[in-house]
Every structure is written in structure tokens, then in C-alpha cells.
Amino acid sequence: MKTVRTYIRLWFSSDGARPSEIGGLLTSLGFQPSKGGYDYVYHWRKKPNIDDLLELARHVQLTLKGTKVYYKLETF
Known about the structure:
- By secondary structure, this protein is α+β, with helices and mostly antiparallel strands.
- The protein has a single domain, classed as Alpha-Beta Plaits.
């Protein structure tokens, strides 16, 4: 089985949280910093179903709420 990964791309506001603060929040959810086209990556231990993906998205939304950071999640 190929490893499934969820990538997150971030857009920061000058009026929002510091990038280092956001990095700490995302790593607390299990994301790791990434180089290239995405900012952080989440490595799934098992093949996720739709409910798993939605649960991760819910955790990201709750964690980043109020930080004035926009984000996009993509899973491959």
C-alpha cells in the first residue's frame, strides 16, 4: 500500500498569528514541516476513509480558528 499523505498550504495575514506559532499548532496535530509546494504534511498510519479526512479537517479548523490564517488541505 502506498502511504497516504495530507498536505496543507498556508496563507498568512499580517494581522494574524506568527508563522512559528502556527507551526507549533500544526505539529501538535501530527503535521510535519515540508519543503516545496506545501508547508506541512500529515502521514497517515492507515488508509484513511472520508470520515478520517473530515475529522482531521475539523481538528485543523478548530486549531487555526481565530489565527487569521487561510489554508488548503489536499490528500494523495
